[in-house]
Design brief:
The chain is an alpha/beta fold. It has helices at residues 15-26, 44-52, 79-82, 138-141, 168-179, 187-194, 236-246; strands spanning 4-10, 34-39, 56-59, 97-101, 105-107, 122-128, 150-160, 200-201, 219-221. It has a seven-stranded mixed beta sheet with strand order 3-2-1-4-7-6-8, with helices on both faces. A two-stranded antiparallel sheet has the order 5-9. It is 23% helix and 18% strand. It has a single domain, classed as Spore Coat Polysaccharide Biosynthesis Protein SpsA, Chain A (Alpha-Beta Complex).
């Protein structure tokens, strides 16, 4: 087993699309450690593609569908979004650092050192904590939190697994159950509460949401824009080429493949 893990979360609908992410991490990202797919999918035929290429299948049950039906761009959230909370279970302490990336990302720069010297969850800062919640909840939340504190985006984050304790996942689920209806960014809202005033800022180049090809290369996240697999995207050709090349790529094998 390698010291570090790059992982994405996927449901059945996103399994094929996640292939491009892994390939761009392996090629342009020059990732030299383990790869993992966090999923509740039971489609063994599709999962075999990842197993055959050395990508660990890390199975998890569905935490639950979000009661918030749409994201801020009016696209439906998927159940896999909540499953990112499983990254804070003790099984991930098998690695020193866990790097999480959303499936709708194209990696254009090396990422092997994005986690160096991180002591807490690290992510790119974004607006404020208050922006993670619906306006009518602000008066109540402001009694316990300073909602003007910086928030962060959870499409890319780094976990130094030393921060994962026996009850970390349990505490996250408790926050989810308490504030799920209040957050407008699903698990991102809950993670922002849990890491209130403790998260570390990640360099902006590791989570870039501007989609102009003229901008310097980065870890490019198509979060609030046309997806890279949409034909009208200026990145569609790159995304399609990466996807095609993934079929012939052998990723660095992981020793441990967990199944529940």
């Amino acid at each position: 087993m390698n010291k570090h893990l790059l992982v994405t979360a996927s449901d059945d609908n996103m399994l094929d699309k996640s292939k491009q992410l892994f390939y761009s991490a392996f090629s342009a990202g020059q990732w030299k450690y383990d790869f993992g797919l966090l999923t509740y999918s039971k489609n063994q035929k599709k999962l075999n593609w990842f197993n055959e290429r050395g990508i660990s299948i890390i199975r998890c049950p569905i935490i639950g569908k979000s009661k918030s039906k749409f994201d801020v761009a009016q696209r439906p959230w998927t159940s896999a979004t909540w499953n990112r909370l499983y990254l804070f279970t003790e099984q991930f302490k098998a690695w020193e650092y866990v790097v999480y990336l959303d499936t709708d990302i194209i990696i254009e720069i090396p990422i092997n050192y994005m986690f160096e010297a991180k002591k807490s969850l690290s992510a790119v800062a974004y607006k404020t904590l208050g922006d993670c919640f619906f306006p009518h909840t602000i008066p109540f939340l402001s009694k316990a939190y300073n909602l003007d504190e910086p928030g962060f985006m959870a499409g890319v984050f780094v976990i130094p697994t030393k921060i994962i304790k026996q009850k970390t996942f349990e505490e996250l689920i408790e926050l989810k159950n308490k504030y799920e209806d209040w957050g407008c960014r699903v698990d991102e809202s809950i993670l922002n509460l849990y890491f209130y005033k403790t998260f570390e800022e990640l360099d902006f180049k590791y989570h870039h949401t501007k989609q102009s090809p003229q901008i310097d290369k980065a870890v490019r996240h198509f979060a609030l824009s046309t997806k890279p697999w949409d034909k009208e995207s200026p990145y569609y050709t790159i995304w399609k080429e990466n996807l095609a090349k993934s079929d012939s790529c052998k990723f660095i094998p992981s020793v441990i493949s967990r199944r529940k």
